């Protein structure tokens, strides 16, 4: 497998302050005070002790990111050693897991006469530009998959959470889903669609991913703040179980100020996936009852992100890491590529 890297901005940018629903960048305390102290005051962080509490959380998050690759590998090894799956079959993608309508879309997209116009006649569009809906899995698979996830949640195996915005969820590479499930799903079934739908933003050259599940439940995470993804293309599948409300909402692309954006609510039905550009701002409204599991696949194209990191908006400074990392690659013929030593 080709070697993948992360961008050094991973250690400083897009740190989410949950209490204030704010993403921040931290390089130094002086820089942070200059850039964010007034904003934080307007959001209720008025005392020095509150500000120090924010700094403590930021330093803890930076430390977590610095040790992320090592800790993730350690968790994966421990899970493999001590965890016994409930449903072993769900770890290996089978066509019988997939909805017939999704398979028809894939069949059309892999035909020699497939066109964007033809696909638009088959796929369901939304009121939001370039957001598409289609059934992905059969209900029977979703049921077994959630049972497996809940079995793992109840086990003593270590668990890594997806990101700073989701406190409840599972990193699927650590659980062993990457090679035999997510990779073939991306390469064989999703790539034909993304190549037609998003050829202008890396959809035809996706070569890595980050996959995880997120959980929403009463007295846990209820919603998800407005954000964009570290991806060229994102698939978000509603797996179940029983819940009310909790629709997604979409704004504009990340470059458009929120003040100039009108958000549109999009329903998300169980077994269905919503496909969208990673830089398309979005969030999830709170559920009002029940439990909801979603599968998220951030699909990445090194050909696109090697030119401009989607998170910091600059040419990436690469840091060595494990697995698919953040989807950047080193071009041996590009003498301008920058490689930094890992901070771990």
From TrEMBL:
Single GO term (MF): L-ascorbic acid binding
Every Fe2OG dioxygenase domain range: 207-301
Bias-annotated ranges (Low complexity): 335-344
UniProt keyword Isomerase, yes or no: no
Region spans: Disordered: 323-344
Pfam families for this protein: OGFOD2-like
Keywords: Dioxygenase, Iron, Metal-binding, Oxidoreductase, Vitamin C
Cofactor(s) of this protein: L-ascorbate
InterPro entries: Oxoglu/Fe-dep_dioxygenase_dom (IPR005123), Pro_4_hyd_alph (IPR006620)
Annotated protein name in UniProt: 2-oxoglutarate and iron-dependent oxygenase domain containing 2
């Amino acid at each position: 497998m080709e070697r993948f890297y992360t961008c050094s901005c991973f250690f400083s940018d897009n740190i989410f302050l949950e209490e204030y629903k704010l993403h921040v960048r931290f390089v130094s305390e002086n820089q942070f005070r200059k850039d964010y102290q007034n904003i934080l005051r307007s959001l209720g962080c008025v005392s020095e002790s509150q500000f120090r509490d924010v700094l403590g959380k930021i330093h803890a998050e930076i430390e977590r990111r610095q040790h992320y690759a090592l800790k993730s590998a350690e968790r994966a090894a421990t899970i493999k050693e001590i965890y016994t799956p409930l449903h072993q079959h769900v770890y290996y993608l089978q066509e019988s897991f997939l909805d017939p309508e999704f398979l028809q879309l894939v069949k059309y997209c892999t035909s020699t006469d497939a066109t964007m116009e033809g696909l638009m006649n088959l796929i369901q569009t939304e009121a939001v530009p370039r957001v598409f809906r289609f059934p992905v899995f059969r209900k029977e698979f979703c049921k077994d998959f959630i049972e497996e996830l809940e079995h793992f949640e109840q086990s003593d195996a270590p668990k890594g959470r997806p990101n700073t915005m989701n406190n409840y969820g599972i990193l699927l590479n650590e659980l062993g889903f990457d090679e035999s499930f997510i990779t073939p799903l991306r390469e064989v079934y999703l790539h034909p669609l993304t190549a037609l739908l998003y050829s202008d933003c890396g959809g035809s050259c996706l070569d890595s991913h980050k996959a995880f599940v997120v959980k929403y439940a009463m007295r846990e995470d209820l919603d998800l703040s407005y954000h964009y993804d570290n991806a060229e293309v994102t698939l978000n599948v509603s797996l179940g179980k029983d819940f009310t409300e909790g629709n997604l909402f979409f704004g504009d692309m990340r470059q458009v100020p929120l003040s100039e954006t009108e958000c549109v609510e999009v329903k998300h039905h169980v077994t269905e996936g919503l496909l969208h550009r990673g830089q398309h701002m979005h969030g999830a409204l709170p559920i009002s009852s029940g439990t909801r599991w979603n599968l998220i696949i951030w699909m990445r194209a090194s050909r696109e992100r090697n030119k401009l990191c989607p998170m910091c908006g600059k040419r990436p400074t690469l840091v060595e890491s494990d697995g698919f990392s953040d989807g950047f690659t080193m071009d041996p013929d590009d003498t301008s590529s920058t490689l930094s030593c890992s901070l771990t």
